[in-house]
Amino acid sequence: MSTVDRKKVLKQQYKETPIEAGVYQIKNNQNGKLFIGSTRNFKTLNGLKFSLESGSASPTNQALQADWNHYGASAFSFEILEKLKKKDDPYYNEKEALQELENKWLEHFQPYGERGYNKKK
To answer: Residue ranges of the alpha helices (H) in the chain?
Structure first.
């Protein structure tokens, strides 16, 4: 398979991957600190990794960016904690449901101060 064909296949697979929302964590495996976040599309995590690698994530989370710069990408792992189960309900609000799910995980891990990169709201 040529490089061009391979790119076409990968692009098609990407387009066919269902859009899934949910909660993820970024873990610093050197010091155990966590960042808990949510996204309406897990595909955006690649963009988040790219932002950290290029140093452009710093406005959103300076402590995470500083540790990423200090320890390097290999010190961090990304993990999906829970996928949002969509409901066929006319009153279902995905954004609110996603926020509730994120709050549940923030409550569970308490990734604040010495334990993580999240800020208390």
So the answer is: 3-16, 45-54, 62-71, 94-109
On whether the CB atoms of residues 66 and 56 are closer than 8 A, the answer is: no
Tokens of 26: 């970024």
Domain boundaries, the chain: 15-113
Count the Cβ atoms, other than its own, within 10 Å of residue 72: 11
Least confident of 17-21, 32-36, 50-54: 17-21
Rounded to 10 deg, the angle between the 45-54 and 62-71 helix axes is: 70
CATH class of the domain comprising 15-113: alpha beta
Percent of the chain with pLDDT over 90: 69
pTM of the model: 0.83
Match 């604040």 to its residue by tokens: 112
Distance CA 13, CA 36 (A): 28
Q: Are 73 and 30 in contact (CB under 8 A)?
A: no
Tokens 């064909």 belong to 5
